[in-house]
Amino acid sequence: MKLNWFSPLPPAGTDIAQFTLRVLPALRRALGGGAVTVWTDQDKWDEKQLAGVDVRRYRSGAVPWMEINKADLSVFNIGNNAQFHGAIWQISRQHPGLIILHDTHLHHLFYHLYVEQWQDAKEYLRQIAKYYGEAGRRDAARRMHNVAQEVYYLSEQYPLTPLALENSLGALVHSPVAFDLLRRARRWPLAYAPLPFPAAPLLEAPGSLERFSSGPPFQLILFGYIGRNRQLGAILQALAEFEEREQFRLHIYGELTDQEHWAAQIRELGLRRLVQLRGFVPEAKLDAALSAAHLAINLRYPTMGEASGSQLRIWSHALPSLVSETGWLATLPAAAVAFVRPSNEVADLQAHFRDFLSDPQRFQQIGEQGRRVLLEQHAPDVYARALIECAQMAERFRPQLIARQMAERAGTKLASMLKVNTPDMAASKVGCEIRELLISANTGD
Asked: Distance (Å, rounded) from C-alpha 190 to C-alpha 320?
């Protein structure tokens, strides 16, 4: 099987670019070297990290379809950031393939594309109505002009996940929560595989055990894309109001949605000596910081339904972590993380800070257990085999997708001829006939 692979690539500031680096070697081994062509719309990518990989560029409006159609199947990595995934989604609409769904709440992606990039609020609202009815359209219309405050509400109520999948041959998700949510639709082939992350043996993990014999001050670390759902305000408040706050130092790596606001907040809370905004740094520097840290904070509330590559990176360093008890994070073994309840972040964080100061060795054991989970459940070779099985399943679904699309077009046309507003029954009846014709053609009956 020959695959096209559409994904952001390093140095793009998203962990999905790193996901591609993590899975490509195993996928190429499983398929036989040159059987994967990687496609990007980026002007530049890290050629050193992608040495030996067939990387090709495309442009919206100038897509090399002849080359793309040489593969057996295209795989599209879809996440919630339009900067990295908008063009990929547009290709997937024209060219059915397998969707790797990194987020199950994709409202941010489509709001940015329709409203901000294309200046087409009418179509954005039409898509809301298509999937959530007229009441949803009216609700979104009222809130869309205050999207900075309403974006998480809109994402929760109107995730628009079906819009990402409407022309797909199947989907692969990284969370049992996402799998249970999507399988109810019974519309696409669907598979679940734990997010992959390569890990060296425990004894080779850099700085895995010695860190707990050092300190105070103990080093806290928060990293990644720091949006509102990462609960930075609660983290800063918990630290500012903690009696023994001088025992800790907090290092924040990555992109903040409003860095000036958070810098001012740190000053106002009297945390300038204790909190450092490090910005986006190269992977090697982030790994060095994780090796030196004592405790990671990985809060995500509200969740976007995603599995967290950041959590796997934390575990790869045998680093204990404080995580939100929601979404995929809530499914993690209790021995491998320390939970923080949504809406109770300040109190729970402070309780964990106190527990850490009184018994750091217990947190060391949490980090070690997390690494065991990583080694046992997140091996890239296992993921590559699951992905290939899912790709084969998606290929077998292609005739059914064609049948469904023909049925929907025929039903819509028939409804128009009959001057009715609900073509569903007509589409269903016509669809059954078309499906039977396709089955007969495929079987020779």
From this structure: 32
Amino acid at 313: R
CA 113 and chain centroid, separation: 18
Q: Higher confidence at residue 231 or residue 282?
A: 231
Number of Cβ atoms within 10 Å of the Cβ of 314:
27
Q: Contact 295/322 with Cβ under 8 angstroms? A: yes
Q: What is the CATH number of the domain that holds 57?
A: 3.40.50
User: Does residue 135 share a domain with residue 89?
Assistant: yes
> With the CA atoms of 330, 336, 342 and 343 taken in that order, what torsion angle do they form, in degrees rounded to the nearest 10?
170
The string over 337-376, giving b where at least 16 C-beta atoms fall within 10 Å of a residue's C-beta and e elsewhere, is bbbbebeebbebbbebbeebeeebeebbebbbbbbbbbbe
What is the mean pLDDT of the segment spanning 387-406? Answer: 82
Angle at 281 between CA 211 and CA 374, to 5 degrees: 50
Write out pLDDT tens, residues 123-172: 999 999 999 999 999 999 999 988 878 888 999 999 999 999 988 999 99
User: Cα–Cα distance between 10 and 47 in angstroms, integer?
Assistant: 9
List the domain range (segments joined by +) for residue 166.
Answer: 3-192
- pTM of the shown model: 0.82
Please indicate, yes or no, whether residues 165 and 282 belong to a single structural domain of this protein: no
Residue 93 counted as domain residue: yes
Q: Is 148 exposed, middle or buried (0-12, 13-18, 19+ CB in 10 A)?
A: exposed
Q: What is the pLDDT of residue 32?
A: 81
pLDDT of 19 higher than 60 = yes
CA distance 301 to 305: 10
Task: Work out the pLDDT band at 398, boundaries 50, 70, 90.
Answer: confident
Judgement on whether residues 47 and 166 belong to the same structural domain of the protein: yes
Q: Are 181 and 109 in contact (CB under 8 A)?
A: no
- Residue appearing with tokens 């459940």: 377
**pLDDT > 90 in the chain, percent:** 70
Which pLDDT score, from 0 to 100, does residue 282 have?
A: 87
What is the number of structural domains in the chain?
3
Residue 303's nearest CA partner among 325, 319, 286 is 325
